[in-house]
## 1
Amino acid sequence: IHRALLSGLLGNIGFKSDEKGVYEGARAIKFSIFPGSSLRKKQPKWVVAAELAETTKLYARCAAAIDPAWLERIAGKLCKRHYFDPHWEKQRAQAMAFERITLYGLTIVPKRRIAYGPIDPAYAREIFIRQALVAGEYESSASFLQHNQQLIDEIRELESKVRRQDILVDEQQIFEFYAARIPAGIYSGTAFEKWRKQAEQTEPELLYLTREVLIRQAVDGTAAEQFPETLTAAGHVLPLSYRFDPGHPLDGVTVTVPLPLLNQIMPFHFDRLVPGLIREKIGWYVKMLPKQVRRHAIPVPQFVTRFLEWLDSCPDQAMLLAESLAAFIRSETGIKIPLDTWDSRLLPTHLQMNVKVIDDAGMTLGMGHDLTELKAQLGQTAQQLFARGAGAEPDSIERDDITRWDFGELPAETRFSRAGKLLTGYPALVDQEQSVAVRIFDTQEGAQRSMRGGVLRLLSLALKDRIKQLEKNLLVDRQTILLMSSLIEMDRLKEDIRSAIIDLALIGDDPLPRNEDEFNSQTSRARTRLGSVSQEIAGLIHTIAQPCQELKKRLTILDKSAIFLKKDMEEQLHHLIYPGFLSRTRWQYLQHLPRYLKGMLLRLDKYNKNPARDQEQTEIITALWNQYIQRLNKHRQAGVMDLNLEMFRWQIEELRISLFSQELKTPAPVSVKRLQKLWESVRE
């Protein structure tokens, strides 16, 4: 009955407004339900009234609740339709919009999703081309889509490589390419597929984009060489990716390193980035130079070109870029540039190689610009994973519980496959206290460190009877050990004596054996040397015990006015005689300890004659010592072992002899100038 009445009473409908008890009616009128109506308290959302009577205000009389869904069918053409938010829907594969329907100004359908093609075919076609084809929101097996997207991706990658955003044309030009080929009336996936299949029968590549269409400006043809897809490091080919996004942490070049290879990679492998960026990086390094040096690098482009030509001919390709630049500047100008002139952390992000470490499944384990820090975080895991992969090989040479050399030749290198990559490992013996094991290391340095301890253990097992006899009858007398006890606890000193004798007698400076014959020969040499080495170490301890005791006593009673002297000599003694000094100091330096201690005593004797001169010379030594300590700490953090730095340390002791106790003489001439010359050969 209500639906029937609506057909004649459409002007008397109303919608409950936010205002209490008020309805919005047709043509912007407002009314209330008559107080005597049964709907007065119910207040339905939509009503129709038999009449609208105005007394004190406009009232709806004989009102009934209605469903607004009835109105669209009953009102027919009286309804007005409004369309908004036309868009592409990927799942439906067609242009869609939302429809709002009003009747006499009242919204009876607020939002309904409808196909937009029949409403505005031209605009729906434009939506289809822009969103579906240009923006790539159309799913189809059509070959032109894969071809076009791959071509666009290649050009975008080229933009990231050359760090320009003006190579790929804008989307409007791609839109015009499609619009010129797709006929009117195509605005849905169904219609497009039907037309495409017919059109491609006569012209298969009708919708194929070309580089000529997509490239706005020509690019240097050497870009592929300047920005390669891969980089070779430590014999392994590693993939590179590029990103042009200034301010983003991944801006620049990213190299992907599998975790098992992490320890084999060195900073110099990535320091030169790629050919397309190295020139810019050198330019930044030139900007960091002091002004008085920078003037020698003008004009900068020609200077960089000369340096790159020099770099290509440089025999040491393992130098960092800063080291190479410092060497080049010195060769050109004679000026020595300290490496701390350049701080790589101040470089723009895109001039620092980003290293991404992944596992076998391709998951990222760590990422950053500091390779040393990544190794500190993941290096141990990398070695374990590397060794596990090598040990899993069917013909692996890894073994446990070895007590004699019965495993034939121990190769310096071995190759095996892991996760599709051919890896190089370095076999070495590992000390397991009661036996040794053969393990595969991921670096030569790690293998060499372990190999010495493993060979020592195996030699000790082969000569265990002689070593037991040695331990029972140490040639160092108890009185000597007691004299040293003020500096080193007795048990630790005895253990250090034993370790030093075994290391020096069993191996010393001999090359490490790699097969059974070499091991047997080394065993014979070690057996004959044990006695003489024991005597040498015992004699050394005997000659340093008395001076140590005397030094300790004299420094304790030193006058307070000589506090500067006391501090310097106590520090010197601490760095000469300490727990483990016998086994940690090379014999070539160890045998000079008695002379250094005697020199300290002579210095104490002379001090009162000229304290000012002593203090002046001490300041010279302190400056050199601080220089040494700073570089030593850097080397330890980076895992660097430099024999030149070790030599520099002991030349400081010789300089002390030269300055404070010349009568003892030095094996070779020594001076501050000579030490500064030696310092130039120390790795920075």
## 2
Amino acid sequence: MDITPKATSGKRLRYGGNVRISEDPEVLDEKTGQIRRLERGITRQKEDVAALAERLGGEISVWYEENDTSAFKKKRIRLPDGRSVWRVIRPEFRRMLADYEDGKIDGIIFYDLDRLTRQNRDLEDLIDLVEFFKRPVESVTGQLDLRTSGGRTMARVLVAMANKSSEDTARRVARARLQQAQDGQGRKFGGYRRPFGYDRDGNLIEAEAELIRAAASRFLAGESWTQLVNFFQASGISPVVSRTWSITSVKQHLLSPSNAGLSVYNGSLRKENQEGQRPSRFADIEGTVLKNAAGEYVIGPWEPIISVAQWEQAIAEQNRRLEGQTFTGKGTRKHLLSGLLRCGLIREDGSVCNRTLIGTVRKYSSEKTAVAYRCPAKVLGGCGRVQRNGSKMDALAEDLLFAHIAANAPAITQQDSGSQPEQDPEAEALADVRRRLATMRQQYATGAVSDETFFSTVPTLEAREKKLKAAVKKQQQARSGDALLRRSPEQIRREWEQASTSGKRAILGQYLQAIIVGPSTTRGPVFDYSTVRPVWKSFG
């Protein structure tokens, strides 16, 4: 490595030092009782990076420390339009690129390329800046000049190889964890962060277990998540996965299948849905529970807090509530747009709040009240920073609806209302597959079918069943859309004017998927229309 100092004018170069380690173990400090990280890996890297800066005639003016930060694992980010992208979240890396671009640092020194990045997307962002600004980017372990074509090409090859290595390691680790879960050993008790309700030896902590049992009874009796948060807070018992009780932490503790002694796996080998995505844990809690070939739950060796039947009842209640939260004219909602408005605030990590705005009534005097739609506070899972006047928001939604209907009027008038519905071969095929599955399972239960035949046939039929279910649902949505498009704007306007609040909600729900509401850019009584965007349902 050429360690000749680069500074020739007597001015010491201001380098930015990037150090990163993927996993830094957390340990329990017996003296303070607090969880802390060892930070040994980045400490060694910082010593070497600082030494190189000195040899190059400069100094580290800013450190960009990424302790316990993966350069490989991606997180799902929801965009304002409802679509998703997957990105590696590295705030310090992004801050370093910004400082490099703004001239706050004269160059970058990192330990090794696989410490700097394992994603080509991140590497290309750095290369773009280096090509334009020509400031040095140096590494401790080898000479890799991103200012030259050969250096950039070699960097791309090395990052691709590092990414491949991370993928291979992740696959092996995931398979090992899946095997552990299938053997009923998927729950960890000996770590610093024990499961709620159990000590590190796997024994029940009766006070926490009784809290789970009481909360489950309250949940099944109809108490809301907010009421349950207050119940947990009043108990005086602290959560394990967060500092304070919130709806998220209460859900994690209350709905966990492990409470019923069930083995859980939520890793990368989990089955994908029809869109090729693994559903999130809270979106498909039942899907995280492992089952054996006979369709029975895999039971772990720990003592359960509640019975399997109680857990299944809690999941059924949660699913019922989720269905009730979809935008519909049913239910007892008092406000027109409850359940339809979504918070569009962009958080610091690039994700969207996406919480449902709730309708609240403000009382200004004994005779004067006003409705406002606002994002719930942070303790309830929202941001608490987006709010809109209720009457103006209702009027805007009505205007958006009929403008959309009018814009699609040419397509509406061309529909053939007298056509007969087409035959649905997918529905017939789905019914046939379900009959075959039922027969196969019945024969296996009676011993008429061998293990080899059952395990080689059933997975194929189940995969076929999932694909057909998706196709049938899509056709049903298309037929529903055709029926809507045949209605004239005048007919819908008459229905709207005669409808109650529930009826108007039903009409809105036929056309709108959501209305995204961003933070207002105006102050006072001026309503900001620019940050309100409807998301329309598509048919066909």
## 3
Amino acid sequence: MTFAARLLVAVSLLPLAVPLAAQDVEEAEESPPAAEIVVTGRGLDPALSTGIYATTTLERETIVAAPSGRIEDVLRNVAGFQQFRRSDSRSSNPSAQGVTLRALGGNATSRALVLLDGVPVADPFFGYIPLSAIPPETLGTIRVTRGGGSGPFGAGALAGTIELESAEPGQAGGFLGSAAINDRADTEASGVLTRRLGSGFAVASGRWDRGQGFFTTPADQRVPATARAAFDSWNAALRTVAPLAPDIEVQARIAAFRDTRTLRFKGAVSASEGQEASIRFVGRGAWQFDALAYVQARDFSNVVISATRFTPTLDQRATPSTGVGGKFELRPPLLEGHDIRIGADYRRAEGETREEALNAVTGRVTERRRAGGTTDNLGLFVEDDWQIGPLTINGGLRADRSSVTGGFYRAVSATGVPVNTILPADRSDWSASWRAGALFYATRRLSLRGAAYTGLRLPTLNELYRPFVVFPVTTEANADLRNERLKGYEVGLDWQPVSAVVIAVTAFDNRVENAIANVTIGPNLRRRANLPAIDARGVEASVAARVGRVSLDGALAWTDAEARGRGLSADLDGKRPAQTPKLAATATLGWEPAAGWRFAGTLRHVAAQFEDDRGTDRLPAATTLDAFLAMPLAEKFSVVVRGENLTGERIVTRNQAGSIDLGTPRTGWIGLRYGF
């Protein structure tokens, strides 16, 4: 661990000592009782402009009732949310866990910015989201804002922002523990312990998931070397919050995780792991501020097995990477009726891949490859919300200085003879982004909104420097990739026809220029390249209804997306981008007949989509039914029964020229939950 990492870990433990030390100090003389200090563990309150943009908020009761018990299942309740593939975080390659919004397509890198308590969680090298390291039971709120924009860490918010906030003591209770087993004998166990410490609190959490998994390979394509998608993952975290003054609190977090999976064949094992630490100071006085610093250390390894000889052909033995950064946001009370935000943020990602190509017959090393580099982004932003009676106007500007330095790709033979060396020139530039919008409360039950914006995403180190193979297709890297730029606008309304029903509808038109995609350039050969653009226009809708103890939550996203490939590949022009369905819809019917009881059934539909950029390898539409049931027993115990894909739908997650992978089959879970 680097010195910076050790320093942040040490600092993150300081809040534990603050309230404890305060309890041990004896007062020399009597003093009037002090005002109660309340710490929340949250960042600053959402800005007024939150309601201007298409935003969905998920509360804790929804988060902890996912039929699969996994965070990606929770997020699928949001209109427009999409993973790169339909696989979940137990059966996919971790490096393919990119998330996006609004069917903006692309590759396995995330086009949506994901934050956990203000910290970007994307892998510094690949840009994927370590979904298995985010236990839903530790979260209190999820806020998803679709569409680009400026603000803290806005350089990654091309398709939107997903903000995950940890649960407060009042939400999580003193202890929440659970254990479950499914019909394949896969198991999961988790615990969240929350303790008040003086005027602050500490939360320790851990989770362990393991199992033999299911066959992702269809029965008619299995061979003796075919393996189940076995998984074994754990994560642990300690988070502390303490007051420094009546209106200032310090928040600190340290965490670690490891996740291993088997993909398709025996010996095809991938592993991802990470350690991270962050410290955050939040001031809620007249001059509000939010100051954050963090460090992340990640690694990834992967063994590729030949689909013909079923022996190792590549040992990607290590991909160490580091992400460091921070932000500072100030909200000065300068003008009546204005909510002004001024600040800066910074993120640096560096890493390299270390891999050996192997002879499929002898198993000997034929080539040793190293590739990597560094990317930096410094952002400066200013934003204002101006409230004029029923009208709120938002405007924001952002300037980003991004740089790509130290890039390299080196391949040598087994004896050390150079085979290929690429040393691209360093580069840097400035980019300007902006967003503007308005929210008008037409009546007490109807609000109208409209917005326009631009956004920015840097290519990842993986996209720039690392080629890869998914048999039988080889995809080349491209060190000359340019930043992706988003231009878009949207209009929408939020309507509450009666007190128990809320309806939201948004129409949008987004365009990603220089969109990075895997472009076919020959038989079984692709290359990462900047498309002229990806256009996505569509409608998102959601409904939330509550009638007594019955609830209905639904979301729908219809998107017409097209790639613009003229000048790069005429075969792409007008084609639908890879991995982008035209329609995705979900509906959850819930019932809470008595205290502690909860039943929820979720119906989901995802339309057909294509594996490839030319639209030749089709992934059929899939409709699934999931269920969740919690029944109280004695004291604080409950029985929890969950069902995934109860209809046994055949979910095709990958189709590479007829070589198919499948998603989660019908699966039943039963377990115990204890909480107080």
